[in-house]
């Protein structure tokens, strides 16, 4: 345990330094005389109106993580039943995601953000019922909500961002701040979840608290957000067809989606595998692993990654080159468990991978904002999640038959393929000048 506490102290210091460097880099790159729209109160007001909602929503999302498995175990379900519940949410997201995305483009992104709040609240409330069928239905709703969470909020923000004439660089700033705040939200959620669980002596208490945050976020959206659409003049079926045509005709969007699916697929498998890998490094002390401290270390690394991305962007690095660097580093980091079993070496690799995750979200979020067409943005973003969910479901079904090292090696293969696709994409267009 002492080793992980020491890691946490060091990482907190690094996070402080990285955030200070990001702050200095941003203000150094913007002369006082060169006041643009991004520096005005209008942009800051818009940016924080979105970020406050995003942080509150992510707090609700993170609150559900720490005790989900423990809740199902307390209801008497075995590992196979619990695995089926988790797989159900990924399958639901895969099956219904494209449809709900097209509804957002047709009927409004703000409206579907509100629908998200209702659906996810119902899903949380259903955790009160210790019936497998009811919980299964709750996981179906959670899968739909997840598809909305990772598409319509971003689609709403990107539309409003460019409608107001803000630049691509300021979009990178918003994504970087969102990733930074997401890490903070995760840490706070872990503390809050533990506190309310202990206060009420109930594994379901964090899920009920999540409903409170969802109500707050939905209320803010309702009062302060304007509505925006993809193409509301066409039917939902036409939106789906248009999205498919974009993926077939625009190789840039297709490759971007493939890279996103490969990275996020590896990341989701990592979420399931880091604990077994650390436990196997010292089986005699597996029950003594400080999971909360390790999780906090990972979230601090996310914060560090977002700060590093902000520094690189403000120093003029090309997004695609940042992407290739983080993909290559991620592949090396997840190759560590295939060659080593020492706990310190494993933890080092895992921390590096989490830093790369902190860079991935703002980097590829900005690329999506630049390349995905506005008229079917939410639909396309959910189409891009289909192979991700398919990969995760397949991996979870097979993970029990593979060694830990083999599973991580599979993730490395995904990341190397993603790196190759990103490199191919950059070779098809002229490269802007880079510092």
Overview of this structure, please?
With 435 residues, the protein is mainly α. The chain is built from 17 helices and no strands. The radius of gyration is 21 Å and the shape is globular. The N and C termini lie far apart (43 Å).
- Largest sheet report: none
Which structural class matches the secondary elements? Answer: mainly alpha
Query: How far apart, in Å, are the first and last alpha carbons?
Result: 43 Å
Radius of gyration: 21 Å
Mean pLDDT comes to 87
Care to count the β-strands?
A: 0
Q: Strand content of the residues, in percent?
A: under 5%
Helix-strand sequence: HHHHHHHHHHHHHHHHH
| Share of helical residues | over 70%
Give the overall shape, derived from the CA principal axes: globular
Number of helical segments? 17
**Low-confidence blocks of residues:** 30-35, 431-435
Give the SSE map.
Layout: H1 2-29, H2 41-63, H3 68-74, H4 79-107, H5 109-125, H6 132-149, H7 152-163, H8 168-200, H9 205-224, H10 236-249, H11 251-281, H12 291-314, H13 319-339, H14 343-371, H15 377-383, H16 386-398, H17 404-427
Quick structural overview:
This protein is 80% helix and 0% strand.
Keywords for this entry:
single chain, 435 residues, mainly alpha, globular, disordered C terminus
């Amino acid at each position: 345990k002492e080793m992980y506490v020491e890691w946490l102290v060091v990482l907190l210091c690094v996070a402080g330094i990285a955030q200070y460097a990001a702050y200095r880099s941003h203000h150094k790159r913007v002369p006082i005389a060169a006041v643009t729209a991004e520096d005005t109160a209008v942009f800051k007001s818009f940016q924080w109106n979105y970020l406050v909602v995003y942080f509150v929503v992510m707090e609700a999302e993170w609150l559900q993580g720490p005790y989900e498995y423990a809740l199902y175990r307390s209801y008497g379900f075995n590992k196979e039943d619990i695995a089926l519940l988790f797989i159900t949410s990924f399958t639901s997201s895969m099956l219904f995601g494209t449809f709900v995305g097209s509804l957002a483009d047709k009927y409004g992104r703000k409206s579907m953000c509100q629908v998200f709040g209702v659906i996810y609240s119902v899903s949380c409330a259903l955790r009160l019922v210790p019936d497998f069928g009811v919980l299964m239905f709750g996981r179906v709703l959670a899968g739909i909500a997840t598809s909305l969470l990772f598409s319509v909020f971003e689609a709403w923000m990107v539309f409003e961002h460019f409608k107001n004439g803000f630049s691509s660089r300021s979009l990178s700033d918003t994504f970087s701040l969102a990733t930074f705040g997401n890490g903070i939200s995760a840490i706070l959620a872990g503390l809050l979840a533990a506190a309310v669980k202990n206060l009420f002596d109930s594994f379901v208490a964090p899920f009920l608290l999540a409903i409170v945050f969802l109500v707050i976020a939905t209320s803010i959206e309702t009062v302060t957000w304007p509505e925006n659409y993809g193409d509301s003049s066409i039917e939902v079926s036409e939106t789906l067809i248009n999205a498919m045509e974009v993926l077939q005709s625009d190789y840039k969007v297709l490759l971007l989606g493939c890279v996103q699916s490969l990275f996020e697929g590896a990341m989701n498998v990592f979420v399931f595998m880091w604990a077994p890998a650390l436990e196997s490094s010292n089986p005699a002390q597996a029950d003594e692993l400080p999971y909360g401290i390790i999780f906090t270390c990972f979230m601090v690394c996310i914060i560090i990654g977002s700060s590093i991305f902000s520094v690189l962007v403000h120093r003029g690095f090309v997004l695609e080159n940042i992407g290739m660097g983080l993909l290559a580093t991620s592949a090396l980091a997840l190759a560590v468990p295939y060659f080593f079993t020492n706990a310190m070496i494993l933890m080092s690799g895992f921390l590096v991978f989490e830093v790369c995750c902190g860079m991935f979200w703002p980097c590829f979020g900005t690329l999506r904002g630049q390349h995905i067409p506005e008229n079917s943005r939410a639909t396309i973003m959910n189409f891009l999640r289909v192979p991700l969910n398919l990969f995760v479901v397949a991996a979870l079904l097979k993970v029990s038959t593979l060694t830990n090292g083999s599973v991580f090696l599979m993730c490395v293969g995904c990341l190397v393929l993603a790196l190759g696709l990103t490199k191919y994409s950059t070779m098809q267009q002229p490269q802007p000048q880079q510092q």
